[in-house]
Amino acid sequence: MTAALQRPLVCRGIRGATTVEANTAEDILEATGDLLRVLIALNDLQSDDIASAIFTTTPDLTATFPALARGGLDWDVVPLLCGHEMAVPGALERVVRVLLHVNTTRSAAEVRHVYLNGARDLRPAWAIPDDELAAILGRPVPVTTGDGSS
After folding, report:
1. pTM for this model (two decimals)
2. I need a surface site. Which of 5, 67, 92, 137 has the fewest CB within 10 A?
């Protein structure tokens, strides 16, 4: 029996964030979808592993709910919640954040948190390199920053 099989099943939080190019439904859903796919891939998550998800956006993102990006992920019975982050002066703009609550046997140290695009500056240790991101998503990914530039 491996060490992972001997561990109890626990609920852990997995954090992620990304920036969005513009306040459009398309951009919000695309960036959030990429973020979710990377979180799922790096943490080897199945739909039944997801207990719930909390999505937040900076106050400048209002075009759609980021939780709608769960389409195609078979999360129909997963409780999802959206809200806005605090409007802190000087904070990074156009950011979508997610906190996944997952049932896992992984230790806290084995969990992979994901920060993409301009959100890499928020948590450099959790930034995913472009080549790893492209391999997971199966396409080159342009990097967006918090100031709207690529």
Report:
1. 0.89
2. 5
